[in-house]
Amino acid sequence: MTIRLRRSVLYTPGSNARAIEKCRTIPADAIVFDLEDSVFPADKAAARGAVARALEAGGFGSRERVVRINPFDSEWGRDDLLTAAMAGPDAILLPKVATPGDVMFAASDLAKAGAPETVRLWAMVETPAAVLNATALARTAADPASRLDVLVMGTNDLAKDTRAKARPGRASMATWLSICVAAARCQDLDILDGVYNAIDDIEGLRAECEQGRDFGMDGKTCVHPAQVEVCNEVFCPAADELDWARKVVAAFGHPDGASRSVLRVEGQMVERLHVAAAQRLLVLGEAVARRETLRASLSEALTGQRFSR
Asked: Phi/psi of residue 118, each to 5°?
């Protein structure tokens, strides 16, 4: 079992060279270089080139590198897709996806352009049509040609298009979020929660991260670097969860439990179905530990370089 960490996914404007440079040091699991909402129309072409050069220059370490392009029905979408693909990101994020055809159309263009299979597709779920078609969109991933790996909730656009009030607790969106989580899980896709707009409200961010985690989200998209650490913390397994997972795995791995379907572990009835969840939690914990060790080593190396000058 392998897990790609996507606890924190930071949007950064493709037109902001300083922000792109800073992304090389921010502890986000993934960076989304945005060519869509955060870039003025007059700056679209320049931002496309800047993002391509940044990707080619590298230096982002283990961070997943994603480019959000403009919609295909805009004057920039097709050029964004092809330019980004040739620069070699880990994925391209498709906005305003509504039907499976939107995903397959982009995948076909990538294949025709000779983009390697390692360039994957993520799809924004940010319209009422996308929510209603969530199952069909996720099912697209059953076709290897689709390249689809991740669904990303666009809660700001959903609120705008549905006229739902975006209040603390997100009662107006709970059903939509849960439907999309279920759709993603049917095809073993990751799904990321939408952004939290109040940059200075760290406790509000934490509460919404916890809600998204409890809904089953794999991580959260961020609009500011200050939000990354909270997302990393909340979407990381807690020490007591890992301890419980080890006990569950050990109980069914013991000779006394190897042939049993149900066991009692510290006063709780545990079935074999819980073993898979426990194993995944342990793999997630190991992935987080490796990531933090790597970042500590890189930080130490950079510090040593500074002192040696």
From this structure: -70, -15
CA-based radius of gyration for the chain: 20
Question: 264 vs 103, which has greater pLDDT?
Answer: 103
**Model-level pTM?**
0.90
Alpha helices in 195-272 (DSSP H): 202-215, 228-234, 239-253
Residue 278 has phi, psi (to 5 degrees) of -65, -40
CB 47 within 8 A of CB 13: yes
Q: Which of 164, 97, 163 is nearest to 126 (CA)?
A: 97
Q: Where are the alpha helices (DSSP H) in 59-201?
A: 77-87, 100-112, 128-132, 134-139, 155-162, 174-186
Q: For residue 247, which amino acid is it?
A: K
Collapsing DSSP to helix, strand or coil, 66 comes out as strand
CA distance 122 to 284: 21
Mean pLDDT of the chain: 91
Instruction: Write the pLDDT tens digit of every residue in 217-264.
Output: 999 999 999 999 999 999 999 888 888 888 888 888 777 767 677 877
Angstrom distance (rounded) from CA 7 to CA 192: 8
- The torsion defined by the Cα of 190, 196, 197 and 202, in degrees rounded to 10, comes to -140
